[in-house]
Amino acid sequence: MIVRVDPRYFRPTEVETLLGDPSKAKQKLGWTPATTLGELVREMVESDDEAARRDTLIEQAGFASYAFHE
User: Fold this and answer.
1) Which pTM does this prediction carry?
2) Is residue 69 very low, low, confident or very high in pLDDT (cuts 50, 70, 90)?
């Protein structure tokens, strides 16, 4: 089987800026965010911290961990 992909549909793996506008969802759906920006940042930092602690424990136990964190 031969598969061809049209290069017009390729997306760059690294995008410089991602920007969203929730105004349409607010207007048409009555949507409002349930999480503030500060809460979101806190959740992201806590998740990164938890992953770093887990990787440290894995390495201290003599196992290899994968450095997927950016």
Assistant:
1) 0.58
2) low
